[in-house]
Design brief:
This protein is mostly helical and 235 residues long. The protein folds into 2 domains: 106 residues, Helix Hairpins, CATH 1.10.287.990; 105 residues, Iron/manganese superoxide dismutase, C-terminal domain (minor pseudopilin epsh fold), CATH 3.55.40. Helices cover 45% and strands 10% of the residues. The protein has 9 helices and 3 strands. Strands 2-1-3 form a 3-stranded antiparallel beta sheet. α2 runs antiparallel to α4, α3 crosses α4 and α5 crosses α6. The structure holds manganese (II) ion (MN).
Length: 235
């Protein structure tokens, strides 16, 4: 278990971490949709081109993300855990040796939905004044936050995620990384605000081994500050 994970598990997190402006709350799927359906992308598949190509989005969303939902729906009937929300399923299976496959697929399903909403063709640039003030208070400046995000992206060994998050105890913005499928919502101490997927499948078609180029381009051009602000509002 990672250090981050132990820290996440130490306190409690709100289940209502998804901002009201997001496109993928269960309510938006419609009353007839299955509870664990793959949400629609919040933009067209080519909308992030050339920072993230439609080719990457096609595989990443259409194969990887869909695959996690398919696995989940295949595993669920025999699990005794049907009927839970995706968030509740992540929490119910976290750190359970007998639930590893369910956790990995549920967490990856959730993380990817959060990732798509963390990106916007109108993203990047500067956050609003209020969020900017909170960033300055926590990191010194937007550029220092950028450096911290990129350092965490580089430091994540192998597959994982880099999160901008709210530490509930201190009410301060923080940057944390998690390995593989691990996610802040498995624990209770941190509210995720935005995430960068640093699994190779997120960037290899466009950037090959250059993770730093992918992460910096994403931060500068796509990071959805409106999503961060919406998640802070409901945190
Ligand atoms: Mn991914």
């Amino acid at each position: 278990m990672s250090t981050n994970r132990r820290r996440f598990l130490s306190t409690s997190i709100s289940a209502a971490i998804v901002g009201s402006t997001t496109a993928w709350t269960s309510a938006s799927w419609g009353a007839d949709a299955p509870p664990l359906a793959l949400p629609k992308l919040p933009w067209e598949a080519n909308a992030l081109d050339p920072i993230i190509s439609s080719n990457t989005v096609g595989f990443h969303y259409g194969k990887h993300h869909r695959g996690y939902f398919d696995n989940l729906n295949r595993l669920l009937p025999a699990s005794g855990l049907t009927g839970l929300s995706l968030e509740a399923l992540v929490k119910a299976t976290a750190d359970r040796a007998d639930r590893v496959a369910l956790f990995n697929n549920a967490a990856q399903a959730w993380n990817h939905s959060f990732y798509w909403n963390s990106l916007s063709p109108q993203g990047g640039g500067k956050p609003g004044a209020e969020l900017g003030t909170r960033i300055d208070a926590a990191f010194g400046s937007l550029d220092e936050l950028r450096k911290t995000v990129l350092a965490n992206s580089a430091a994540q060994f192998g597959s994982g995620w880099v999160w901008l998050a709210l530490d509930k105890a201190s009410n301060k913005l923080i940057v944390v990384k998690t390995g593989n499928a691990d996610t802040p919502i498995a624990g209770e101490s941190v509210v995720p605000l935005a995430v960068i997927d640093v699994w190779e499948h997120a960037y290899y078609l466009d950037y090959q081994n250059r993770r730093a180029d992918y992460a910096s381009a994403l931060f500068d051009k796509l990071l959805n500050w409106r999503f961060v602000e919406a998640n802070l509002t409901t945190a």
